[in-house]
Specification:
The chain is an alpha/beta fold. It has a single domain, classed as TIM Barrel, CATH 3.20.20. The protein is built from 14 helices and 19 strands. Strands 10-13-16-17-1-4-7-8-9-12 form a 10-stranded parallel sheet. A 3-stranded mixed sheet has the order 11-14-15. Strand 14 and strand 15 form a beta hairpin. Helix 3 runs parallel beside helix 5, helix 6 runs parallel beside helix 8 and helix 7 runs antiparallel to helix 8.
Amino acid sequence: MGYQGFLHAVLEGADILPAPKVPGGFGASGQAPAADTGGFLFATGIECSAPTIAHGRIRRDLLEECGHYARWREDLALVRELGLRFLRYGLPYHIVHRGPGDYDWEFADLAMAEMRRLGIIPILDLMHFGVPDWLGNFQNPELPARFAEYARAVARRYPWVRYYTPVNEMYVTARISAKDGLWNEQLRTDHGFVTALKHVVAANILASHAIAEVRPDAIIIPSESAEFVHEGRTTASAKTAAFNAHRFMSLDLLYARPFDAETRAFAFDNGLTPAEYSWFMSTPRAGHQVLGIDYYGRNEHIVTATGRRIPVEDVLGFYVLGREYYDRYRRPIMHTETNVLHAEDGPGWLWKQWFNVLRLRQDGIPVLGFTWYSLIDQVDWDVALAGERVRAVHARPHAQPGGRRIQGADPGIRQPASEPARGSVHPGRRRPAPGYGAGLIATAGCRSARGPPIPGDRARGRRGCPRRPWRHRRGAAAPHRGHRGTRACPGGSTAPG
């Protein structure tokens, strides 16, 4: 429609932003409403990232690449097998929302009905790093209003759902898409970054209103990556100072916390208008707000005296960063993502994160939940999904347990070829790796094990809707897509979650 900016699109559609039916947030007391289970939200998740790469020619749909479309019943059964009820679950936005007012609910209905049958409480993840082809990318000013329409449609179709993550990792979405140049619009500009950021934050706000219109007691859990760069010099460089300031931009806009002078000047110089900034600072929020914080070890980096950037683990850790984010926004928090690269490191990392959560709660900080993310295998996060099928891991059909091979590598993208695949192999059966967690949770890695690939069993990741593997016979195997690496992005940035 040739919108001048996202506010034009919002103001033109008067029904997009109704008056909220419940007050935003929890107030200074930080008290949460009564949850469905009346207790702590201990969750796992299914990886559902879906950005495009190669200038929109290839869709990295992790639900498809990790075999979930073909094995969704088995994956959901694993959640209850582990004794868990809460599940961060992403509906495939790029498949469901086919155009204005046009939705394909086939797969979503199947998965949601099974979750309800099993007694799983979903935390619905509505946008996870990608948008439908017809919306283009995060530079599109129509995105916030169109996404709000989608969120309202989801809430109306599944009125029994109370928990939502409207937009996953707004800052990471904008940075990797429009500053690092790896996904979606693949820009490398400050203006592109600020434009993408204001659009995804506005989308989150409008979607929250749309959900609360249908479900006034909705609990909104936007997740954001908690990051920090340490400088190994006496005085931090301007680049490091800017990074550590800009990591807060998405949440500052989301929770109407005024920018400091330097950040405000940066935003105004790169596409955020005074009218848009005023809208962010004055628009009421809807739904009960819980701040989701994603923390992986390599969220922290050290810049040495020579300028080299090194990923490190746990310099500050979740305890310090969680407290920092809570003190800044005064919202109840939830640890919404964490995991490790190597399966044998999982139990120690899980316990470490758990004790960080307990210590924060002992200090009086309202931590309402914890998420081990994700339940099943993930692929190519060691290169931030920046290539097509960098690494595929599956069990050899004739191998002894423990035998695996790595294949399908793109020679143009770096790959740790000498690193063996981790986890036990039980050909043909997808299962959690046994014995992790020592009672805290039954697994800390869930390295699945599938049989050999079925020829033609997966779409090739091109744009548009994939073939519909969820129509396969129950239990049909799909190509195994390996295990998740820590999301160490090229250039030193990190994209967890």
